[in-house]
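About this split. The held-out portion is used to measure sequence recovery: a designer receives only the structure tokens and must propose an amino acid at every position. Recovery is the fraction of positions where the proposal matches the reference. Here is one held-out target exactly as it appears in the evaluation file.
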């Protein structure tokens, strides 16, 4: 698991429980937000032509918005490391999923200087992280439209319910953006929920001599009047929480996997320790090994970003799409990229990035698979067997503090039950399905949901179709309640 010590400390938080939240709770805790449901069309506003301020996520009620679906983000960002100021233009291409006299985008901080909808200036007001946009003419259901937001300011670092930090970090030579779970709103306006994935073009303009790295492939870089613009494209759909940008001095290494996937690795030289260098050299091998287990690598490039931040600022790696991000502090004995962490983050490209949770409570679908992949890797490398890892996970009471598919609050989504507890669900499945059917599951699940979303219920139904065994007792015991050692 990727939470380098110290663990993310819990902070008290008060959350308003919306109608949709209570409805999904009573449904057994695995219901996905339903953007066509009653909460999405009219929550709290009384009008059916008003987009809801959230998608109804049980754990993050304010995340995302109702009434539309984003297909593309075109972000044009200019960053000045001296002042820390970002000037942005975000062109958001959207399809309305209901009539919209008004809709929301999520944005934290900044001065919004202008918003247009299809070229016409729209009325805007802000309420916390909700930006309400009222186009001159209401949009009809199914309409495709373009919203352009012009904004500027010093992007904020956000503090999560569990006390950890995300959003925008200033570094001594630039900046780093990390978005899990809601940090995307610290650098661009969006429908900030994993259920709405979109393609991206991200152009970042920085002073000459600095490099800006983002998801996907570098389309071009152009220098003019002392500045360089780096244009990155993610053509496969991406959740907002997986978008990243890193600005600074980086050593760039390009290569290819055995399967032909282009590899782009950016390393801040101050975080380049021997362990990190040795791990990064194995990216092609790891991606090929994971492709053998999980099916074809789901994106058109892969890589990594290793940045340099003082210890304690970030404290975790993140599976940013195509380029997982690793913060290094440059301190001896604290490698920026431990090999098992790299294996973990790369497995997220299948589990999390390509197959994305429909709601935050489904996050065990990310972390359970990524942790299980670490177990597989250790066995593959001649270390602990999967059985031994499972036995160790079972013996650790932290893994059974709550059911993997039911984190009790937003401050608990990166706790042990989501990681080790989630991996134990997969281990139990292997025991019940047998190694052959389980191997099929590992390949066919990412294929079935490739570039999409999935709920816990989608996963359990998918598993059930692979076997005549009734899997309900297994899922009840290991996924929906806290596992009990007497259950086989
Ligand atoms: N997803 C990261 C990993 O395990 C860990 C992480 C980073 C995280 N930020 C988070 C988990 C925010 C939950 C919430 O690879
Ligand atoms: Zn993870």
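Reference sequence for scoring:
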């Amino acid at each position: 698991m990727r939470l380098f010590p110290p663990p993310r400390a819990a902070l008290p938080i008060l959350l308003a429980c919306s109608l949709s939240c209570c409805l999904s709770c009573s449904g057994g805790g695995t219901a996905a937000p339903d953007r066509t449901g009653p909460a999405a069309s009219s929550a709290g506003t009384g009008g059916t032509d008003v987009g809801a301020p959230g998608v109804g996520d049980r754990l993050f009620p304010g995340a995302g918005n109702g009434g539309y679906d984003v297909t593309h983000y075109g972000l044009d960002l200019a960053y000045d490391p001296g002042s820390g100021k970002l000037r942005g233009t975000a062109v958001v291409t959207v399809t309305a999923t209901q009539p919209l006299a008004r809709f929301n985008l999520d944005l934290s901080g900044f001065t919004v200087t202008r918003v247009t909808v299809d070229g016409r200036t729209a009325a805007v007001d802000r309420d916390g992280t909700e930006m309400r946009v009222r186009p001159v003419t209401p949009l009809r259901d199914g309409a495709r439209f373009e919203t352009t937001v012009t904004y500027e300011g010093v992007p904020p670092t956000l503090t999560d319910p569990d006390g950890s930090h995300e959003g925008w970090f200033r570094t001594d030579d630039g900046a780093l953006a990390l978005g899990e779970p809601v940090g995307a709103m610290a650098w661009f306006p969006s429908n900030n929920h994993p259920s709405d994935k979109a393609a991206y073009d991200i152009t970042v303009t920085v002073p000459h001599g600095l490099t800006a790295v983002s998801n996907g492939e570098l389309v071009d870089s152009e220098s003019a009047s002392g500045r360089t613009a780096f244009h990155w494209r993610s053509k496969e759909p991406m959740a907002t929480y997986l978008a990243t940008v890193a600005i600074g001095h980086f050593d760039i290494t390009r290569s290819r996997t055995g399967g032909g996937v282009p590899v782009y690795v950016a390393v801040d030289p101050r975080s380049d320790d021997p362990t990190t260098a040795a791990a990064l050299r194995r990216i092609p091998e790891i991606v090929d090994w994971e492709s053998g287990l999980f099916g074809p690598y789901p994106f058109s490039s892969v890589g990594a970003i290793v940045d340099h931040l003082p210890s304690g600022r970030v404290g975790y790696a993140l599976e940013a799409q195509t380029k997982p991000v690793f913060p290094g502090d440059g301190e001896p004995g604290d490698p920026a990229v431990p090999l098992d962490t790299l294996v973990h983050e790369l497995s997220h490209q299948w589990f999390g990035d390509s197959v994305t949770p429909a709601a935050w409570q489904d996050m065990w679908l990310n972390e359970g698979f990524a942790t299980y992949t670490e177990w597989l890797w250790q066995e593959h490398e001649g270390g602990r067997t999967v059985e031994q890892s499972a036995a160790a996970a079972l013996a650790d009471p932290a893994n059974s503090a709550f059911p993997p598919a039911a984190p009790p609050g937003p401050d608990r989504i990166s706790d042990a039950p989501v990681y080790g507890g989630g991996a134990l669900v997969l281990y139990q499945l292997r025991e019940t399905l047998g190694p052959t059917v389980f191997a099929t599951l590992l390949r066919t699940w990412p294929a079935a949901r490739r570039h999409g979303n999935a709920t816990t219920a989608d996963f359990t139904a998918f598993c059930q179709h692979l076997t005549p065994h009734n899997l309900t007792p297994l899922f009840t015991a290991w996924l929906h309640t806290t596992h009990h050692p007497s259950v086989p």
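Annotator remark: The mean pLDDT is 90.
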